[in-house]
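Forwarding the complex inputs:
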Amino acid sequence: MSNIIETVTPAPTPEAAFMRALKSFALLRESTPGMVGAFLVLFWVIVAILAPLIAPFDPLATLQPMAKPGTVYSMGGTFWLGTDHLGRDILSRIIYGSQTVLFYAPLATLCAYTLGILMGLAAGYHLGWWDIVLSRISDIILSFPVLVLYIIIIATIGSSGINIIIAITFASAPGIMRIVRGLVLDLRNRDYVAAAQTRGESALYIMLVEILPNARGPLIVDACLRLGYVIITIGVLGFLGLGLPPPDPDWGGMINETRKMAMIFPHMTIFPVIAISSLILGFNLLADGLREVSLRD
Amino acid sequence: MPDSVTPYDGPVLEIEDLCLSYYTRAGEIPAVVDFSATLAPGESIGLVGESGCGKSTVAMAIMRYMGSNGDIVSGTVKFKGRDMATLSDEELRQIRGSEIAMIYQEPMAALNPSLTIGSQLIEVPMTHDGVSKEEASKRAIAMLADVHLPDPERLMEAYPHQISGGQQQRVVIAMALLSSPSLLLLDEPTTALDVTVEAGIVELIAELSRKYNSSLLYISHNLGLMLEVCDRICVMYSGEVVEEGHIDSIFSWPKHPYTHGLFGCIPLPHADKNARPLKAIRGQLPLPHERPQGCYFGPRCDFFKAGTCDQESVRMSEVNTDDDPAHRVRCKLWNSIDHDAAIPMGDAKPPAEIGETVLEIDGMQKYYEVRDTSFAAMISGKGVRQVKANEKITFRAGRGETVAIVGESGCGKSTFAKVLMGLEQATDGEVRMNGIDIGGMPVQSRSPKQLGSLQMVFQNPNDTLNPSLTIGAQIGRVIKKFGVETDPVKIQERVLHLLDVVKLPRDFAIRKPRQLSGGQKQRIGIARAFAGNPAMVIADEPISALDVSVAAAVTELLTDIQRENQTTLLFISHDLSAVRYLADRVVVMYLGMLVERGTTDEVFSPPYHPYTEALLSAVPIADPQVEKRRIVLEGNLPSALNPPKGCPFSTRCQRRIGEICDNEPPPVQFNADRHGIACHIPMEELRKVEPVIKVSDKKPDPAGATP
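Prediction (whole assembly, two chains):
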């Protein structure tokens, strides 16, 4: 059939790939919640990056205790959101605090995902003993109340940035494994996996090249949601005094330190609360938007 | 209703100049253009066409059920003289399900899995006729008996998953007929079923539509089926009816080049892969928003005339033949085409030489163990039961030969392929490939050379390629893995060469699979299988998911490459027409057992195994010159967990001779060298059986066709 004419569509080039990325963003634009979420997340990312430039004061400096929002500082400048009981500028602390949260939350999520994906792939692809052992381990971890689990882990290994990541990885990986395992159970029966098996590919190659990339859609949506939960977790750990050791600005820690004075000086608590809520809301809305867009067409 | 007072005796359905569009992000997409049809009471009309031609959209528009983004742009649909567009939602609800009923492709999806069959059936008369529950259940039981389901009372209490696919479809038909509709819409009602089951359903539909005097609108892509069930057909292409008329008239004297093209793509009994190969229609179906000016079929048509066919849109014109005044065609040139010479045929090719034996299978068995952990099983000591997926399979395949393995779902043909590929291990027997037993050799312990010499083409085009990798990367990986080339530049060269071989443009190498059509993906699947210069390729239903014209192209490609490389092809299929066309030798399987094997001619003519005979009779053939003896099998495929003790086919056999069939496994009798039949009936009697298919030699007289 030499006379078969195939319609030729333009081949993908770097520009085309860029255009496609723009197009997926354009798709997200059709989802209002998705756009609001993207805006909130982008806002905090920019704040975190530009923190040294936009923060009016040193977040650790003791300046003027318990100033109300809008108070003009005698040495120049204004405490737009007031100061806390130790006289530190709340706006600067929130701005620098965004660095902490946007550093640890994605890192912890990434670690949790790496472990969860590896466990899920192994359990879902090999089945048999791998599946039984890994699934039981994750069942045991999931049967603990999360908060108790965090307290046990942090109490055992001490509170530091690395340990927060370890605790979050340990507690979230089983949930991620469940999702990955479910996706793999479906994908492992595809013909292209059989084709890879019959050309003698190793199990690791099949899992990482043939299966994992095709599970990415639901995983990206879940990652956005989970990032929100991790931010809550970091906040909760900070609130319980299990987060980053003081005096580093940490949103959860800021709420904890000031909560006793919240009735008299609400500004000390309310602004960090707004910061945490808006970022989590941002990630959740972004996940909703991505899901909505991916379900269309 | 006023209809019941004064009986309406006009046409049941009148569709005039119907245009339907879908509104999407990309804008308005015309799905159906200028569709007209009239359906008299008791008449059956067929809509035939390839996927995407708008045939299901027409059915949905008749029900006025187009979804949120579809709408009628112009034209009218009149049901019993009433314009459907003017009816209120309440009136529509009265008509749907009671006067117009629909039967869908997937019976399991049409039944609610969490309700009993009885409760789903009695709903129909209770809602539409307002009868009591007792009366409704009486009617339901009577209807279940009408669709020839055994033990209707017990079935009323069963859940859909407890019965087989064929029985489910019978229940769906019963449900549709319960309110004795005037119009029955059938959207590919048998496509998901096995051929022997399909034959039963087709007969049932014909019988019931006579009994209840329902008009039928039958939608299918299968031209052979149309010939068996319809009075008139409409051939659709890209949203338009290109030709309509009486079934005999269209099949004997087609006028539209597309209809000619379709017949050239179907492996009819007279087609032969060497002497009279199939001829695919070149090019692809245009996307709805990229349809060409003038005739939509123009760019793919061999009779295309610039200046005539690419101007204004083409209207239907009358083909006034003596015996069919309603034959109409949408072609400006139909009068100037020589229709006798128009049936396209590929160029004859030399037959492939069959060389030394490559594959030898000797008593191969594959049993699966099913563990029953129930308490009862533990007491009776039957904790482990065996499923005999393959039982004593024996045959040989030579170099360059095409061996077809035929059987319906559950016959063990895919298990057999898995054993060959090393994804499963044989329980017993030998599978010798070039003299080495690979039956018990798992894929991990095979050498790259062994792996490369035995490759597979898969069934589902959407599943055969990894959606995340480019085409070039996927083919290149195979070349590298089998050690054909190691240098990246040479690998790239070979990838491009393979794309040339499967007749795809070279820039496909940097595309992702989702940018390709089904047929193109299947070509890539073939390129991948042949990348390692295999000695043998297993093709597991490679064309059954493709449209007729695409399937023809893929079939031709496969035979061309095979002929060129002297590859042994193991063609696994349930489609006997394709098998007759492609195969040199045929192996027929039933319930894991090999029931007949021999050359294609031997298997397709008497003596037959009774199962082969039934299978041959069940396959619809799109040729009015073919006369078939009708054999409809009763009952269901037995469970593989609990197969009959004697001959596996004894429970459904139309030639069962007695006790011996139930109790003793049949011996293999040889009619000729390597033509074996596993049956208790003596060979002399089997030889006396009449052929199932008779092709009358006389070509129908075309004189009546020319005006």
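Residues 255 and 273 of chain A are 7 Å apart (CA to CA).
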